[in-house]
Amino acid sequence: MAIFQTLYQEVISFLGIGNLLELYRTGNYSSLLTFNGILWVISPVIPLLLLIEITRALIYKRFKIEDYKIPFLIFVLNRFISRFISIAAIAFCIGVFEKIAPFQTTFTWYWFIYGYVIWEFAHFIYHYLGHKVRIFWCLHSTHHAPVAMNLSVTYAHFFLEAPYADVIRTSICILAGVNPPMLFLIMFIDGTWGAFIHVGENILPDGRMGFLNRIILTPSYHRVHHAKNPEYMDTNFCNLLNIWDKVFGTFQPEKKEVKIQYGITREMNPGNLLDVYFGELYCLWKDIRRAPGIVNKLLYIVMPPGWSHTGDHKTAKVVRKAYEEEMSAAAVS
């Protein structure tokens, strides 16, 4: 019975309906008018959409178990090894940096706008480093390994990525004076939208979402971010507001004539949990072991993925430049 109770609790936790069930049991529906009540109602949205996405795929005979298997296994694995790490990292950063922040904001609508812009900047920094620093890419690559886009991909993360991300994002926000309670609200909104933009074509065939594509970062932009096409690599690092991608020149709309190819560029087995989860770390270890001298070994850790001590670089920047030159030459001829 203990096993079934544990499984039941895990399902309830995954669906995000624990608080709603307790609400139904007690009959205290007035709590829905509170801030927490609103969060309780919103929490099940992404899991519900995932179930709808799978159901539609089954109905239209487009369901492939391999598209969902690895993200599901990663979710189960992470539930056992990283449940509290990220929360502890956030609490630690708030405790350390709130004391030395040059000023403090309050929980008001205008400071909320300021806080969200700062949060988006912090998210950009973490995400950019996740693609441009090899050791951070080893943590982030698990999320990019799936070769199909669907809502289950939002659960595919290496267990250390969330703490690393939250240390960077929380530290920047707190140092910039973002009010901690407001920061948690921003995290909730951003996390919900960040999950939604992984929605697959079984629910949202055109991820541009009409006029919203001109205002915010839609699923279309995030599909571009997950692409391994040379013209799409290392773009669209923001999550909701694409302001910082435009500022730093990493903004890339989806091209109708370019079919998105999901996954990462190295040869890998996307159906192998060990390869998806630890493959990049193993490749980094091989490069470090073969590199001559301590300097080259250290450079492999901090330089972008694809950097080589031989000078034969295959970084995203090099690959994209070579592709653009090839396209330009083809256009001229």
From TrEMBL:
UniProt-annotated location(s): Endomembrane system
InterPro entries, alphabetized: Fatty_acid_hydroxylase (IPR006694), Sterol_desaturase/TMEM195 (IPR051689)
Gene Ontology cellular-component annotations: endomembrane system; membrane
Domain called Fatty acid hydroxylase: residue spans: 113-250
Keywords: Lipid metabolism, Membrane, Oxidoreductase, Transmembrane, Transmembrane helix
Gene Ontology MF terms: glyceryl-ether monooxygenase activity; iron ion binding
The keyword Ligase is annotated on this UniProt entry: no
Protein topology in the membrane: Multi-pass membrane protein
Keyword Repressor: no
GO BP of this protein: lipid biosynthetic process; membrane lipid metabolic process
Transmembrane segments: 29-52, 72-97, 109-129
Protein name: Sterol desaturase/sphingolipid hydroxylase, fatty acid hydroxylase superfamily
